[in-house]
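Replying to the earlier thread about multi-chain prediction with a worked example.

Input:
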Amino acid sequence: MTGLGASRRSPLHVQHVALGAQFTDFAGWSMPLRYSSELAEHKVVREAAGLFDLSHMGEIEVTGPEAGRVLDYALVGAIGSLAVGRARYTMLCHTNGGVLDDLVVYRQAERKFLVVANASNAVLVRALLGERAHGLAAEVTDRSAETALIAVQGPASAEIVTAVTGQDLTDLKYYAGRPAVIAGHDVFLARTGYTGEDGFEVYVAAELAGAVWQRIAETGEPLGLKPAGLACRDTLRLEAGMPLYGNELHVGVTPFDAGLGRVVRFDKLGDFVGRSALEARTHTTRALVGLAGKSRRSPRAGQLVKLADGTVVGEVTSGAPSPTLGHPIALAYLDHAHADAGTQVVVDVRGHAEPAEVVAVPFYKRSR
Amino acid sequence: MSVPRELSYTKDHEWITEGEVATVGITAYAAEALGDVVFVQLPEVGAVVSAGETCGEIESTKSVSDLLAPVAGTVTEVNQAVAEDPALLNSDPFGAGWLIKINRAGSDGELLTPDAYDELTAG
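Result:
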């Protein structure tokens, strides 16, 4: 049924078929939605570890003596000052300050950066980085087609990744990455993720992905590792309060609207695309907040948030029943006057006024 | 995916038994497409339903779907077990995961034979 219209297949497609995955079309890619039950997969990531295929993500390499300058100009973050081996969460903005994509950038070497873009935006990010590099000594290369991305996320992930790489990972900090070897193959290993758990992401040449996936799966199995699909990834990221491009983030909002103004580095040297627009747009009228639902129906993207008297005060951007917490959770843009934690609201869920309370995000925080 | 031969089906993936009091559920195909069902809203016993009209909601982690009445009539029974444990819809959609019973009155909606439903969901 689903997935048949998708034109691109992950280098791990054979593995997913063998595991009995149900596929979904995601940004033109046929990707595993779930292997068994998304609730079971969600739980496994919270309690042991999940193995994800994220090969649909875009990987764009920026290299050369002025690579750091290119990224400082093209993105809102301070990238040129990043230490080798470290990563940063940042955004690509329109000249008007609107968010075009949220990205993770790794500095792999003094003159080599890896920019990871959302699948749906990979082509745009590649094109704009190329355009914004104009005249500077740097090369922008799309590595998406030749790169696979495998994630191991969950409390058991460090033990599993230690076992497959032979590395002591205690000095690999969150948002850091370095070379490693898995199943005899060179990979780039990063301690990053999108689930709210400790976790790792493995960038590997597409033709080696099967062997690397297999080694991690076999090594992790006794420690509780199971393959996990995109369905549970979405509930995991929502519990972790992380924004999703297309829902919380889009060209109609600035990083300040999304409560992520900290990623905009006005203090960095030189101009950057969007600077003047963003300087004028630091003031926001709405805030991105968490909602905890008090009934069983979940708020969903696009539904209106109201006060008890029916006044509309905002709109839901993402919502789902939280598998970990046992009640519905949602992210919503609300007018500042009604955005304080503890505020009681109702969400118009398909004609039913369902009560909810504004709460702090993340909804779920792992114990360290 | 082949379906039980003794049932009729709708294009909206409900199944229904023959007879004056018909049992209604959703197909395994629908349950798999929805993913893990976490909430089911069923009509009250005694509710009068019309063929093709919404009479309940089925919510999974990802989305919400309407339950459409396949035939017109009066609801005589709702499955409390599935309201309490919506996962029954995933584990046994043609059995313990049945949803409602309707005392047929008036005309049925458009119902499909098992073969026609197989064809609809093939590929």
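The interface with chain A takes residues 29, 32-33, 35-36, 38-39, 41, 57, 59, 61-64, 90, 121, 123 of chain B (CB under 8 Å).

Feel free to reuse this layout for your own posts.
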